[in-house]
Amino acid sequence: MVRLIYLIIGIVVLILVIMSWNHLFPREEKRVIRQFELLSQYVEKRAGEDLIAASGRIKKISKLFAHQCEFKIEDDPFYSFTGSYTREEIGGYALRGRSYFSDLSLWFDDYKVKFLDKATAQVQLTGRLTGRSNVGEKVDEVRELLCTLKKIEDVWLFERFEVVEVLKR
Q1: pLDDT tens per residue, range 88-144
Q2: Which of 141, 165, 161, 139 is nearest to 150 (CA)?
């Protein structure tokens, strides 16, 4: 009976150690997905956001990108954004883009992470941007994205964003 209790306690301790290990040292896939979660969190804007909070978010957005990041968004002439940009330029565009909205949210889901090598991850996912413009128009855009992240100094940074055209029925 005593052995059974020790066996049960040992199994519980082993499970707790494994869960703690996974929480303290997440797998690379989780670290890549975490970057998208951070981007979503920093892009978010609520009515009444003050200038100091906005500038802090823009600074955090910039730090998620590599020093040079390529964008290929060509499916709509009004939203065309193609080229290679520095993280500072991306911060400027993010500030300008957020300023058109009183309320803004960005979600990502359906992650398909593929590691091309130890320091490069390619992620296909769905992005959804919702909000309300300063003039009261509702915005609800959904796009399929193909993103590349590069591991630089043990941090995954966005290196490339591309909108993938989805076939229409």
Answers
A1: 999 999 999 898 999 999 999 999 999 999 999 999 999 999 999 999 999 999 999
A2: 161
Do 127 and 140 meet the contact criterion of CB atoms below 8 Å apart? Answer: no
Cα 22 vs. chain centroid, distance in angstroms? 21
Contact 82, 71 (CB under 8 A): yes
Q: Give all domains of the chain, ordered by start, each with its CATH number.
A: 30-164 (3.10.450.50)
Q: Is the pLDDT of residue 24 over 70?
A: no
Count of H-run helices and E-run strands, the chain: 4, 6
107 in Cβ contact with 127 (< 8 Å) = yes
Is the distance from CB of 168 to CB of 144 less than 8 angstroms?
no
